[in-house]
Amino acid sequence: MKKVEIFDPAMCCSTGVCGPSVDPNLTRVASAVYSMEQKGVDIKRFNLANDPAAFADNKTVNQVLQEKGADALPVILLDGEVVKVGEYPTNEEFAEWLEVSAEELTQKPCVRVSVKLD
Amino acid sequence: MYTRYNPKQHVETPYLFFTGKGGVGKTSVACATAVALADQGKKVLLVSTDPASNLQDVFEIELSREPVGIPSVKNLFASNIDPEEAARVYREKTVGPYRDKLPESVVNQMEEQLSGACTVEIATFDEFSHLLADDRIFTQYDHVLFDTAPTGHTLRLLSLPTAWSGYLEEATHGASCLGPLSGLDDKKDMYQKAVESLSDGEKTTLILVARPEESTLIEANRASSELGEIGIKKQMLIINGLLQSYDQNDEVSTAFYEGQQEALTKTPEELKKIQTYSLPFVSYSLIGMDRLRQIVSDEPLVEFKETSEDTELAPLSELKDVIDDFSSKNTRVIFTMGKGGVGKTSVAAAIAVGLTEKGHKVHLTTTDPAAHLEYMFQNGTVNENLSISSINPEVEVEAYKKEVITNAGELNDDELAFLQEDLESPCTEEIAVFRAFADVVERSEQEIVVIDTAPTGHTLLLLDSSEAYHKEMSRSTGEIPESVKKLLPRLRNPEETGVVVVTLTEATPVFEATRLQDDLKRAELTPKWWVINRSLYATGTTDKVLKARAASEKQWIKKVQEELADNSALIPWMKEVKIGYDQLKKFVQL
After folding, report:
1. Molecular function terms in GO for this entry (chain A) (predicted)?
2. Where residue B243 falls among pLDDT bands split at 50, 70, 90?
3. Distance of residue A66 Cα from the nearest chain B Cα, in angstroms
4. pTM above the 0.90 mark?
5. Does the model's ipTM exceed the 0.85 cut?
């Protein structure tokens, strides 16, 4: 099983809606990650704003940051190796790395039932 | 007539929240209550959540987050929760350990992200609920009094526990906007408890403070119903500053008295159902322990010698001089700033009308959540060169949510649910309002824009976030509206933008305005004018009580003139609430 790790820049929220403008790319990545998680793919995201330890402790990521600074974010690791720096992967790239079809990342998962407790 | 407020008889619960439109005297009433209860032998903690804390002015002692004993009053302790400070402490706790481990640019990015409005709100809320949920605080003190910030802020703060409790349950996908406080979920029990304490009538009383003025009564009514909906059912109303008698030979005094009585007859029906008490209008200002004790004693109507009686004042400008200045310099964006209740809305409206009369095309708007522009122009004609709008946070949030969801493109049900969850966060309001604000300032290319901004703390957060916003844009890949890009440089350019600080001739409003000016200067904005509103001194009253109060105003006028303002103007107290274009026109032609 392949393992994907995404080291995000400091963000208020993972979809980016809290930023000064919505970055459609972030919304796409958030959805793709969510779909992959649902399929049981080993994929993790770390946000610099609330998980700085992950950035400091991961030698590979720390190295990239020491060399290139904050502009290097996001950093994407596949099985511990850097595969992408400074931008998010496309759905096709995710698919290639994880050996699934790109359609699977955008297809509708089953409807989630939300329960509101008052 | 109302029963005179007496804390010893009328306070029934351990937690007391004071709320009301800014400038109604919440701080004074809270302090007098605290001192009276402490004098009775009760152990009392007085907490300020006001970004511009007034408590330290009143007690003449430096306050911090940790409760300190007030030296001159046995059993009385006070603390101040400064939202900005709480956020700073939190930020340092998060970022500090990584200064050596990660490169500077990375650390800077973290700090920048943690400087947003979210962090301030979360950090404040955290402090606030800590006091409400902590059993030790509850057992240690007989009473805990919250001298809360002006109403808009109060409402947000108090409505947070419920809003966030709901949010935490629904935020199934993890960090999101609550990211800045990771581990927040662990505190869920504490927040739950805070909510329970608030809506427990045995524990919490909401004390609505108003003046015998229609706008403050309307505001109290709004707060009452809004907080009632959240579950705070036990409420009490205090009418502060009720003039007890008047001098028939003095026009101002008669008008002052009649104005108050008239306003009281217009008390909203819902508000009339609440238990109501009053405090008298007194000739002295409420600074120092002896005066705080006097106001809630059986004999409040005594005289204190004011030190400023013999002060001589230099001649002062009037509001029309302010208007002439802006008109001749062709200033494009004009802000009136000040704590809620000082009359920024009226001053903004009067400036807008004055500039319209001078032949300019003017747009008047407000970002004040407790806006009453509509109220001011509810009758009468409006000149065709004057347009009016308001930025309503709720409407803006809805529009923003819609825009985000539309721009997000094709989403399945699950993705939509995910995005909607993030849009439920408190950040969304800040962003949405900010964008609307930028759009209004953009209009200044075609017309003069007069903006009546929200109360101090909120205003600063707004401007602060405009700065963070500005920096953020350089690395964002999303679409940035042109208006937003131009905003900050425009606000900082004195050729384009004029700031008017509005204050009253009393200690607290002057202190607050001073802090506001300091904060603005840090943001590289220097106020052009100070306008001192509702001055009894400027009326020339001969009534005994009012005259004593007028004399006590002189020290504050002098301070503004000599120490604080580049230019200052004085507006006399007036009976008529200036409603409608024609009345405002008369007002600026004085």
Report:
1. DNA binding
2. very high
3. 6
4. no
5. no
